[in-house]
Fold:
Amino acid sequence: MTKLEEYTSKAEASLAAAEAATSERDRAFHRRAHTIWRKLIRGIGEAEERAAMQPGYGKRPAIKRLTSAKA
Structure:
């Protein structure tokens, strides 16, 4: 499970808990938690967009050969 999937499921759970809460205090707590998860999700999306704009994004790095030192 990726972080994006994890955060999305937690945001959905927080929203469902806010709707099911019986007290205003609990509703406020779960709405606040939902907002935090949504901000984290948005942050992941923005980070992925910035990374995609970098030259060489998605390319595999060159692997340097190890040289063995002969005694």
Observations:
- The longest helix spans residues 24-53.
- Residues 3-53 form one domain.
- DSSP finds two helices and no strands in the chain.
- The CA atoms of residues 32 and 64 lie 48 Å apart.
